[in-house]
């Protein structure tokens, strides 16, 4: 399958690119620079230097491809991009996989695809866009990843210590985060693409839901781990970002396993922080 991919030079998108190539799909990725284009080519894809806000280029690439995977999701990008893609794919059987996010569901100890939507201010913009994507006539699947980790990057990198300087929790650290390794997420995106559901939705979570304190203690490597009040976290990180990280979220990812045949195999976040990709 010839796949038009966005975000191929980014954290999630580069993993999706690797997974698509590993599964013998042909990939055309839109990137912003020659340097990023070379990285795409080195990974086995074809690169087009351009911008995802250029609707003419997006329309052309969507028409030329057999499928679209959008990982460069952003408030300033998604309204026009998703409208252009869904219009281009209407009347075809071409699948469109769109990246969502776990924050959409707010505080919950049992997040599933049927859970009510209650996003924090940080990601409230996603809901109307996703509603329009799902209401289209296109074969769309929204993949909503938990806290993405792995390869030494992602939000959890904020808790990596040097054995000397303190590692600060977000709040008291009692909240749980539902998690997914970036490479397991890439595999799920490929499965979603190949499944090509009509109005599909899947929560990308491995079922591992550690507390923020457990995450920080695993990543501290001898640095002191320090709790703070929620207000102090808001002052340090910004209110919108802190409020998202203060959410208590747990998910099993059961639907991804049962319906998509997804089998996450990478180390847990705590394991990866303790002796994996985050060790300096």
From TrEMBL:
UniProt xrefs under Gene3D superfamilies? NAD(P)-binding Rossmann-like Domain
Q: Which SUPFAM superfamilies match?
A: NAD(P)-binding Rossmann-fold domains
What top-level branch of life does the organism fall under?
Bacteria
Give the signal peptide as a residue range, or say none if absent: none
Domain NAD(P)-binding per the UniProt entry, residue ranges: 7-149
Pfam families in alphabetical order: NAD_binding_10
Name-wise, this protein is NAD(P)H-binding protein
The species this protein was found in: Curtobacterium caseinilyticum
* Taxonomy of the source species: Bacteria, Bacillati, Actinomycetota, Actinomycetes, Micrococcales
């Amino acid at each position: 399958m010839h796949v038009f991919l966005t975000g191929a030079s980014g954290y999630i998108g580069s993993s999706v690119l690797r997974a698509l190539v590993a599964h013998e799909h042909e990939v055309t990725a839109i990137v912003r620079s020659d340097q990023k284009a070379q990285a795409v080519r080195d990974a086995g894809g074809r690169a087009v230097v351009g911008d995802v806000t250029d609707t003419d280029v997006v329309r052309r690439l969507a028409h030329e491809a057999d499928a679209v995977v959008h990982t460069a999701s952003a408030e300033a990008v998604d309204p026009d991009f998703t409208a252009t893609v869904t219009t281009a794919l209407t009347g075809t059987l071409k699948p469109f996989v769109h990246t969502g996010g776990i924050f959409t569901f707010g505080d919950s100890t049992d997040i599933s695809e049927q859970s009510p939507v209650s996003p924090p201010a940080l990601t409230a913009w996603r809901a109307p866009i996703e509603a329009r994507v799902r209401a289209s006539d296109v074969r769309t699947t929204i993949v909503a990843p938990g806290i993405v980790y792995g390869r030494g990057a992602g939000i959890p990198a904020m808790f990596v210590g040097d054995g000397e300087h303190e590692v600060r929790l977000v709040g008291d650290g009692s909240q749980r985060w539902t998690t997914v390794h970036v490479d397991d997420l890439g595999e799920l995106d490929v499965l979603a693409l190949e499944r090509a559901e009509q109005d599909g939705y899947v929560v990308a979570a491995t079922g591992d839901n550690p507390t923020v304190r457990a995450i920080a203690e695993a990543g501290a490597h001898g640095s002191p781990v320090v709790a703070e009040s929620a207000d102090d976290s808001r002052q340090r990180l910004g209110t919108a970002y802190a409020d998202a990280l203060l959410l208590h979220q747990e998910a099993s990812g059961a639907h991804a396993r049962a319906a998509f045949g997804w089998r996450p195999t990478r180390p847990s976040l705590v394991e990866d922080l303790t002796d994996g990709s985050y060790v300096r």
